[in-house]
Structure formats: C-alpha cells, structure tokens
Design brief:
about 30% helix, about 675 residues, Rossmann fold, binds adenosine-5'-monophosphate-propyl ester, seven-stranded mixed sheet, disordered N terminus, GMP Synthetase, Chain A, domain 3, about 25% strand, alpha/beta
C-alpha cells in the first residue's frame, strides 16, 4: 500500500489467478454456488430481521427471540428478548447426542519425553462440561456473581477454555489477557475493566523455557485493588503434586504476610484459590448450573490496540457473538462434528476466542490446542500434530506460512497430511506466493483455502470465500459474509470505482460486532462511527475488484500489524517515553518479508543523555517489560529531533520512508526543519 499526499490509496496488486471449488467439496458444503451465496447474502442485507431470526434457530435458546435487530446508531441490540447461555451453547446442548462422549478438546503440551512424545490430554464434551461446572461452582463459592468481571491470564492449556466457559456459565464477563503480555499490561487491563478475580497459572512452556506467568500475575494483582480472588492452576508437575498447604505457601501473594493462624486462603487481603477442576472441587447441587442470560448480556471484554492512547476494551455480548462464531464455523470452515479443527492462534487473541473456544464447540467439532511454538523442537511441530491426530482443517496466519516457506518444504514433506481437507488464513493480507505455497505444499493441491478478513471488533469472520460456493483468488479475502455490507469509500463516504483504493467501511451493524468500548462509549463512537458518517470504519484500506472481491491492503491508521499482532504506535511510543532517558519517540512500520511489517522506533533522548548501544538495548528491553516481548521493536534509531509539521505533528510518513530505506516522494513543504530529515538519514539501528 502506498499513501499519497491527498490521502487516497493506490492499490497495485494485479493477481488474477482463481481457484474453483472441487465438485466433491461442493457436494458436502452448506452453500454450493455463487448464485446461492448471493441470494442468501442479499436476503441478509434486505431483510435482516427475517434472515437473522431464522439463522438464530441454530442456537439452543432458553427463550427464543422474537426480534432480531434494534438499531439506534451507533448502538445495536440483537435478539434482545431472547435468553441463552454461551456455555450451554458449547456444552450442555450436546448432552444426549453422539457428540457427548466425543473429544471436544485435544491438547498437546510442550515438554517432550525421551521418545520425543508430548503430553496429550483429551477431554470429551462430557468431561469438559464436568470441569466447567466445577469451576463455575468454585467461582460462585468465591463470591463471583453475574456481571462481575474475571481476568484470565494463562498459557495454552485446556484450563484456559474451562475458565472462559465457567465465566460464561455464571454470566461473569471474562477478559483474557494474552500470556505474552507483561505484568504492567496485565495490571492496566485488570484495572480498566475492574476485574474482581484473576484466573492464572504457575507457568507454561515455550520453546523449552518456562514462561513465568505467576510472577507477572502476582506483581500485577498487588497493584489491583478490585481483585479479591486469585485462582491458580498448577501446570508444572511438581506444583500439581503439592498438597494444598504447600501450594498456598508457594503461591502466596507475600510470604511475609502469610499468617498460618488466619484463614489459610487469605493473603494480603486477597483470597488465593487453587484451580482444581479435576475431581476434588466439592460443590452443592446446582452450584455450577448455567444461568439463562439476556442475549445482550456481556460475554467478554477483549483488549485491542487502537490508533491513539491505551488499548480498547472491545465488548462482545452473548447471543450475537455466539451466533456469529457458530455460523462462520459452519459456512466458512464447513465445520462438521466429524472434523478435527486446528486453529493455531493463542486464545489470548480474538481468533482463539472465536475459533478455539466458542465457535467450534458450539458446532460440536473437536478442537486441537497446543502449548509451545510452531518451530520447536523442530520446524515441523504443526505438521507433526496434523499427522498424529489426523487434523482435517488448519487455520493459521500468513506470517507463520512465510516462516514455514523459509525453513523449507522438507519439513512438511516428512508428514502424511492427507487428512487435511480445508485450509484457512487470518490476521493480515497473504501474498499470492505464500498462498500458492500453502495450497500446494500443505494442502496437497486439493484443499480449498479460505482467506478470512475480520477484526477483534467484528467478533467473527466478515469477508471470505465460502469454500464450496465461490472461487478463491490468491491475495483477496473475497466476498462479504451474511449480514456484512462492506464498501470501499473516499473521505466523504462516496463509494469509489471498481479497483480504486479507499477506506474499507461496513455499512451497518452485524450480530457479532462489538457493542461498545468498555467504560468509554465516547471512544467507541469516535473510533468507529465518526470518521465517515453513519458507517463503521474498519481502519483498513482496500479495493473492490470488478467481480466484487475485496483486496485488503492493510491499516491506514496508526496501527501496525506485526506478525499478525495488532500494535498501536501510540502504545509503543508511550512505553518508550515512560523511560527516564527518553524525551520523545515515534513508532512506524516498515515492510518485512516475514512479519508483514516490522516495528521501527525513532527516539529523541533527554538533553545530556548519550545515545549508546547499551542504552538502545535498555530501551528495547523496556518496551518488552512494559508491553511484552512480542512488541519489542525490530529497530531503534536515535534522533536528535523528529521531523514535525509547523503545528508540531510528527510526520510519520517521512519516518516510515526512512525506516524502509525509500526516498520520500511525498510533500515535505510542511516540514518545519528540513535539516532534521537529513540528520536522520545517517542514523543506524
Ligand atoms: O488489518 C486487518 C488485519 O488485522 C486487523 C484486525 O486485527 P485483530 O483485531 O487483531 O484481529 C486479527 C484476527 C481477526 C484487520 O483490521 N487482517 C485480519 N485478517 C486479515 C487482515 N488483513 C488482510 N486479510 C485478512 N484476512
């Protein structure tokens, strides 16, 4: 994508190959032709009430809704008089069906035994239900009630899904904080949503190392007055084997405050509870029961980066969200109870919420989860998992695919992946070369690929190609899902001509879209419903081709997409400026073959402070400590001054060109001091 000085977007991709669904795939798919897809889509836009009430029958409502949408721009309510429970949609509904004794989750841990075999845990729907009921009862016992927020800070273990569903069961909105976030980031999110409890774990494994979740959790909750209860899952085998007293001593919130004579579970005024969902958690009949909740009851808050200030707590509610997650599983992934679905995302991001936890379980499929990294102990961890478990659908990110291309075809070729029947990608635009490699090497040339465009805010897939109905074009996300009405518009909101670049907007609300930003409805309005009047602004740039396909080119606001992770430049800058040596900082992205975008920061030091390599490392470490290692900049340049307009605005466009090593073609006439730019050209990273 390139941005010229008038702000219009020029799209240059001219990919023209198409891949048509095979007759075999088409035969088993929910939607079998483009005409059928178009008729359904048109109905979803022209008659949203009729369409969505009909689709909503797919869920096990306690009270069926009689109306679909109530729209008071920009606030939508969906299925308002309906009642349901998301955990029932995922679990209880399968009682008495063949799914009940079938695996819901298959999990592989990271440590490998002498034979190179990982630990594997399989939970049937019945077993997962049992664990969720026990934890729900435990949450209730500890005073957590409907409406209370619960933060979840865990690694990729089955217990994280148990925790999410247990919260949903009692109507306590959860906020899952990605385990890669640092303590301060966890603290800020807990404080923002006023969580009453934190569910965490001692540690998890990644690339043979221990991720010290408890250390970070402990440091965070000590600064969080709203947290009354901390529930800890023991992951490390020797911790799991501890008796309760030893466990409580080990995980006390402050050794010095540990008082043997007081209630052994009270530490620093916070209750420490062991996460024992396995069998010994005693509870009274009914204590773990699901409650019927209004469709608009808050299901979760998930923090995501915006273009300004602190992360936004995206709020999703029960009925619309679960319907979106379920329907997209069925229509987009062609998901059936016989499928083994492998979404490689972390549950701390929206992809993990919708396509590990809620969507596949509400569809009765089996989900694979793994702890660790795709390239450890060898670059074939995923292919090994696919072969061992006979995975049928794989959903991963372009950045991962590009990394696999680099390590070579020999790794996937060692494995029999003939069980795969469909592939998906998400998180960033996929370059056609990577798409073709994925199709040929991983899909054996026989699996359709669904490129899925969506966002934390849309809750579920919004643009894609239904795999049995329409052709895929490598590099294009495809056509709108039901109820989604995207357009490419100019600054005034006028639709631009076919193939012209512009802003990607959604013309109206859809069931799984965010309802607001937690605690900041004004920001919800300004961030999404004000840039172009009366439509939802996605923040992405795109073009629509003559065939109606959308080609998303990337963000047009100050949000970067680094290895599929959404990072706000403002967050990085404020982390840097919080360091005592830093006067000013600017973060920009530059194209990167592997990560899509790499993060480069320009830093001006306070006067009298010398720019040294040691300080550079210290500043990079500082960002890791404040936000998390995944946000560590790829390059840092010291700058005597930053290029600014006469009104004092940092000209990021120029910095972006500098970081990318390209000559700035744009207008520099508004630049206050041309010497600044000349000085920066010489700086190293
Ligand atoms: O820029 C788009 C990009 O990721 C952004 C959303 O990021 P996040 O909320 O973290 O959710 C990621 C997973 C849904 C979008 O605004 N993006 C996501 N999927 C695609 C994409 N860009 C192009 N093609 C996609 N398939």
């Amino acid at each position: 994508m390139s941005e010229n000085t008038t702000g219009s977007i020029q799209s240059v991709s001219k990919e023209s190959r198409r891949f048509t669904p095979s007759d075999e795939f088409r035969a088993g798919a929910e939607v079998k032709s483009r005409a059928e897809y178009e008729a359904l889509w048109k109905r979803s836009i022209d008659d949203p009430n009729g369409f969505w009430l009909e689709q909503a029958k797919a869920l096990p409502w306690r009270t069926a809704p009689t109306k679909a949408l109530e729209w008071r721009e920009p606030h939508a309510k969906w299925f308002e008089d309906g009642e349901l429970n998301a955990s029932e949609c995922c679990l209880d509904r399968w009682k008495g069906t063949a799914n009940w004794q079938k695996a819901a989750l298959v999990w592989e841990g990271e440590p490998f035994d002498a034979q190179g075999q990982p630990e594997i845990v399989t939970l049937t729907y019945a077993q997962l239900h049992d664990r969720v009921v026990r934890l729900a009862a435990k949450l209730r016992r500890n005073g957590i009630e409907k409406g209370d927020r619960v933060a979840i800070y865990m690694g990729m273990v089955p217990e994280v899904v148990v925790a999410m569903l247990a919260c949903a069961r009692i109507g306590a909105p959860h906020t899952v904080v990605f385990g890669g976030f640092a303590s301060d980031a966890l603290r800020d999110r807990i404080i923002d949503c006023g969580a009453k409890a934190l569910v965490t774990q001692d540690m998890s494994y990644r690339r043979g190392n221990e991720v010290k979740l408890w250390e970070a959790a402990k440091a965070a909750v000590e600064q969080c007055p709203t947290i009354a209860t901390v529930i800890v899952h023991a992951r490390r085998p020797d911790h799991a084997a501890m008796d309760d007293a030893a466990f409580q001593k080990r995980f006390s919130l402050g050794e010095e405050d540990y008082d043997e004579t007081a209630s052994p579970t009270m530490m620093k005024g916070k209750r420490l509870v062991r996460f024992t969902s396995k069998g010994d958690g005693k509870f009274a009949a009914g204590e773990g029961d699901a409650v019927a909740l209004p469709a608009e009851h808050s299901l979760f808050v998930l923090y995501t980066s915006g273009s300004t200030g602190k992360p936004k707590g995206v709020l999703h509610t029960t009925g619309g969200y679960i319907l979106g997650a379920h329907l997209t599983c069925r229509y987009v992934f062609d998901l059936k109870p016989s499928d083994l679905f492998f979404c490689t995302a972390d549950v701390g991001w929206v992809t993990g919420h919708s396509y590990i936890a809620y969507g596949p379980l509400a569809t009765g499929a089996t989900c694979i989860m793994f702890e660790g990294a795709p390239n450890f102990p060898e670059p074939d961890r995923l292919w090994d998992i696919i072969e061992r478990h006979r995975v049928s659908i794989l959903y991963t990110a372009p950045t991962a695919i590009r990394a696999f291309i680099r390590t070579g075809e020999e790794w996937p070729q060692k494995h029999d992946m003939s069980s795969l029947r469909l592939l998906g990608t998400v998180g960033e635009p996929i370059n056609p070369e990577a798409w073709l490699w994925y199709h040929r090497v991983i899909g054996g040339g026989r699996c359709p690929i669904v490129d899925t465009w969506w966002q934390t805010e849309t809750g579920s897939i919004a643009i894609t190609t239904l795999p049995g109905a329409v052709d895929a074009k490598p590099g294009s996300a495809g056509l709108p899902f039901f109820g989604i009405h995207p357009k490419v518009v100019d600054q005034e909101g006028n639709e631009v001509a076919a193939n012209a670049g512009g802003k990607l907007i959604l013309a109206g609300p859809s069931p799984s879209m965010l309802r607001t930003i937690w605690g900041d409805d004004e920001r919800f309005k300004t961030a999404y419903w004000s840039d172009v009047p009366h439509v939802y602004t996605t923040g992405d740039g795109a073009r629509k081709d003559e065939d109606g396909y959308f080609w998303v080119v990337g963000r047009i606001d100050d949000v970067l997409n680094v290895a599929g992770h959404r990072i706000g430049t403002a967050e990085i800058e404020s982390a840097l400026v919080s360091h005592p040596s830093v006067a000013e900082a600017a973060a920009v992205g530059r194209p990167d073959d592997l990560k899509g975008q790499a993060l480069v920061v320009f830093v001006t030091l306070k006067s009298g402070i010398e720019p040294t390599d040691a300080l550079r490392k210290q500043l990079l470490d500082h960002v890791s400590k404040e936000i998390g290692k995944f946000a560590r900049p790829d390059g840092l340049r010291f700058a005597g001054a930053l290029p600014k307009t006469r009104s004092g605005k940092i000209m990021r466009r120029l910095l972006k060109d500098l970081a990318s090593g390209v000559e700035s073609k744009g207008d520099t006439s508004t630049l206050e001091d041309l010497n600044v730019l000349a000085a920066l050209r010489g700086a190293s990273e």
